[in-house]
Amino acid sequence: MGRSTKTALIADDDEFFRMALRTILTNTLGFSEVLEAETFDQATALLSEKRIDLAVFDLIMPGMAGPGSLKKCATAIPICAWSWPPSQLGGRISCWRFRPG
Question: Is residue 2 part of a domain?
Answer without folding.
Answer: no
